[in-house]
């Protein structure tokens, strides 16, 4: 990281080169922008959006925004660049801010858009209440060209407004690929004019019209964001089979699925009807989505229906395919041949990795980072999502540590160049439109930084400090991550207690929730696990404070104890109130049980902070910790439990 001590170094993603200077540029009503080089509507609109946010933040109205001479911020682009963003576009920029004004220079408009976001992040409130941008010289360009967010509209439908506001938030952290997961077992969420029966199966629960898709693509392009559509085949495809059962591997009465998991239904790739339908529908989609890349899924075919089909078994034998993987590879070659005339390169989840997969394709690594390196060694381009799954509730630090090209990578420079970047996927089994942004932000900003910034930018504490600031600034983009949970139907006092309880827990990690709760499209998504942040800042700060306290020599502890006790008391009061609330169903009963456990943990911790635990009490507390480690029906966990365990262990000696 090249930076001097910074006045308000809240930038995220961190730029490639930062050179802080003395002083600051005051932001007041006289602020004006001059477009000095290439000028076009996209650049003006991008500046306009930035000024809207600046006005809102600073509570100022600029009046006329643009001037022909002078100007507080001078924006100089050499070229328009591609109006429809492409992989590898030059997104670089330089930004110089001084007391007298600011200069933003970029080869292309997209670089200027990236630089405007940096400029906005520099603007902070000063002690006297006025606003200013710190003086600095920044030279910046991304480390990776593919920095994505995957939105799953197939499970819980995400309407266009969710997608639009997330485009603004993505742009704020310099992400440049929106991956739309459009079809799955639970939904066919894209209008087909050629085959309207396909999307008709989801007509009641949400379909993106082609007009809406075109508006999304246009808004994305305005922000320098590519849109990559995904049509998951041959598995995760029950919604196709609901209107086209003739392309299934096994005859069944197919309806759109309402529950989650790796389901058996899969297309029969050997049928001419399958090829005909895919060829026709994909041609329509190839025209709708202009990006060069076309994601065909390819994940999680468990093979059961293929094995159950005599026809498929005979086909494999006839073609000398010993495994389902070989048949899958044959199918993918057909898809590649189908899409090449449309100018498309395929993207597939890492199951597509096979020697016969065309080398023009991109392997999307999700089961582990190894497939990304293997793909690059075998000549494929690749992107990383393993480690970035927002829906699995990994802390930002874990995602931050997942580097597509780690320092110990064994790849040659030629192979390393095939690693294009990554995407943060947000699968929507457990998130509807009310919750969706809450799961994405701010953690996706840590992924955005990993993909934009230099590998050496990896100070976790500093990342969290900046993430907290970005969390606030993202509100300006319209993203609704702070508007959830709402606690409708609860009294204000109960809602306040529930909010505190929710802040002391996190949803269970990885795929555990599906093992505790049934979920499904009918599940109301309005209980403790839905209200809890994937990563609770208060719970983790408490754990860190307790660990620090435990490391202190005994004589220094008394003075540091109060903050811990205050925190425990607040949790205890809230949890005791929640424990008294009615439990109308088993999920609410799980919440009540969670609250009871928190009361008991707080009581024991308060005791252990003051004095050693007597032997019988120590044994009881040991059992309490063991019980608390097993999730209740509420499917949440206490992130500070390991730290409490250490406190109890020490107090029991
Ligand atoms: C996936 O998560 N099944 C790609």
Q: Mean of the pLDDT scores? A: 96
Helix content: 40-55%
Distance separating the two termini: 45 Å
Rough outline: globular
- Name every ligand kind in the structure: acetamide
Radius of gyration: 27 Å
Number of helices: 25
Can you describe what's shown?
By secondary structure, the chain is of the alpha/beta class. Helix content is 42%, strand content 15%. It contains 25 helices and 18 strands. Strands 8, 9, 10, 11, 12, 13, 14, 15 and 16 form a 9-stranded mixed β-sheet that branches. Strands 1, 2, 3, 4, 5, 6 and 7 form a 7-stranded mixed β-sheet that branches. A two-stranded antiparallel ribbon has the order 17-18. A hairpin with a 2-residue loop joins strand 4 (93-98) and strand 5 (101-108). Helix 23 (586-610) runs parallel beside helix 25 (641-651). It starts with 16 loop residues before the first strand and ends with a helix. The model is unreliable at 1-6 (pLDDT under 50). Bound molecules: acetamide (ACM). Acetamide binds next to loops.
List the helices and strands and how they pair.
Elements: E1 17-27, E2 33-35, H1 41-58, E3 73-79, E4 93-98, E5 101-108, H2 109-122, E6 123-125, E7 131-140, E8 146-152, H3 160-172, E9 177-184, E10 187-188, H4 196-200, H5 210-222, E11 226-231, H6 238-243, H7 272-288, E12 293-295, H8 304-308, H9 310-319, H10 324-339, E13 345-349, E14 362-365, H11 370-377, E15 381-384, H12 396-401, H13 413-416, E16 419-426, H14 436-440, H15 443-452, H16 460-473, H17 492-503, E17 506-507, H18 513-516, H19 528-531, H20 537-551, H21 554-557, H22 561-579, H23 586-610, H24 615-628, E18 636-637, H25 641-651
Parallel strand pairs: 2-3, 3-5, 8-9, 8-16, 9-11, 12-13, 13-14, 14-15, 15-16
Antiparallel strand pairs: 1-7, 4-5, 4-7, 6-7, 9-10, 17-18
The structure holds acetamide (ACM).
């Amino acid at each position: 990281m090249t930076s001097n001590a910074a006045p308000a170094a809240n930038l995220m993603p961190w730029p490639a080169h930062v050179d802080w200077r003395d002083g600051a540029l005051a932001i007041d009503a006289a602020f004006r922008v001059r477009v000095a080089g290439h000028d076009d509507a996209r650049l003006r609109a991008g500046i306009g959006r930035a000024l809207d946010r600046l006005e809102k933040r600073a509570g100022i109205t600029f009046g006329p925004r643009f001037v022909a001479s002078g100007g507080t911020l001078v924006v100089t682009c050499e070229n328009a660049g591609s109006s429809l963003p492409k992989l590898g576009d030059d997104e670089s920029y330089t930004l110089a801010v001084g007391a007298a004004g600011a200069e933003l220079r970029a080869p292309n408009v997209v670089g200027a858009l990236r630089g405007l976001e940096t400029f906005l992040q520099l603007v902070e409130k000063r002690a006297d209440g006025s606003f200013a941008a710190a003086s600095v010289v920044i030279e910046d360009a991304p480390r990776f060209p593919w920095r994505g967010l995957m939105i799953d509209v197939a499970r819980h439908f995400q309407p266009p407004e969710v997608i639009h506001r997330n485009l603004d938030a993505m742009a704020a952290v310099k992400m440049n690929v929106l991956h739309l997961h459009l079809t799955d077992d639970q939904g066919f969420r894209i209008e087909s004019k050629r085959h309207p029966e396909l999307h008709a199966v989801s007509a009641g629960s949400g379909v993106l019209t082609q007009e809406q898709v075109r508006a999304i693509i246009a808004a994305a392009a305005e922000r320098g964001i590519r849109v990559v559509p995904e049509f998951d085949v041959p598995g995760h495809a029950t919604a196709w089979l609901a209107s086209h059962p003739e392309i299934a591997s096994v005859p069944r009465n197919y309806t759109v699925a309402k529950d989650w998991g790796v389901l058996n239904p899969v297309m029969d790739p050997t049928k001419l009807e399958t090829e005909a339908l895919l060829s026709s529908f994909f041609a329509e989609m190839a025209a709708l989505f202009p990006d060069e890349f076309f994601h065909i899924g390819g994940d999680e075919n468990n093979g059961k229906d293929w094995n159950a089909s005599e026809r498929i078994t005979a086909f494999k034998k006839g073609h000398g395919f010993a495994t389902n993987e070989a048949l899958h590879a044959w199918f993918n070659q057909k898809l590649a041949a189908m899409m090449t005339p449309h100018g498309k390169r395929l993207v597939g989840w890492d199951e597509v990795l096979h020697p016969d997969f065309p080398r023009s394709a991109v392997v999307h690594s999700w089961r582990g980072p190894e497939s990304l390196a293997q793909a690059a060694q075998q000549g494929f381009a690749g992107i990383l999502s393993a480690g970035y799954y927002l829906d699995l509730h990994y802390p930002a630090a874990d995602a931050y540590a997942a580097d597509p090209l780690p320092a110990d990578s064994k790849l040659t420079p030629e192979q390393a160049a095939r690693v294009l970047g990554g995407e943060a996927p947000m699968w929507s089994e457990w998130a509807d439109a009310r919750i969706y942004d809450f799961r994405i932000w701010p953690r996706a900003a840590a992924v955005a930084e990993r993909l934009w910034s230099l590998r050496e930018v990896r100070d976790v504490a500093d990342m969290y400090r900046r993430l907290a600031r970005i969390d606030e600034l993202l509100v300006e983009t319209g993203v609704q991550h702070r508007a959830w949970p709402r606690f409708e139907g609860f009294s204000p006092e109960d809602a306040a207690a529930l909010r505190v309880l929710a802040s002391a827990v996190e949803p269970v990690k990885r795929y555990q929730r599906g093992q505790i709760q049934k979920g499904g499209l009918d599940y109301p998504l309005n209980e403790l696990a839905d209200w809890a942040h994937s990563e609770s800042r208060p719970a983790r700060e408490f754990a860190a404070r307790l660990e620090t306290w435990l490391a202190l020599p005994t004589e220094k502890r008394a003075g540091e104890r109060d903050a811990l006790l205050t925190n425990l008391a607040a949790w205890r009061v809230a949890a005791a109130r929640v424990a008294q609330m009615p439990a109308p169903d088993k999920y609410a009963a799980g919440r009540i049980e969670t609250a009871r456990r928190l009361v008991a943990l707080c009581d024991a911790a308060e005791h252990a902070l003051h004095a050693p635990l007597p032997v019988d009490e120590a044994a009881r507390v040991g059992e309490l910790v063991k019980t608390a480690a097993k999730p209740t029906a509420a499917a949440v966990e206490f992130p500070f439990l390991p730290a409490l365990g250490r406190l109890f262990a020490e107090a029991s000696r």
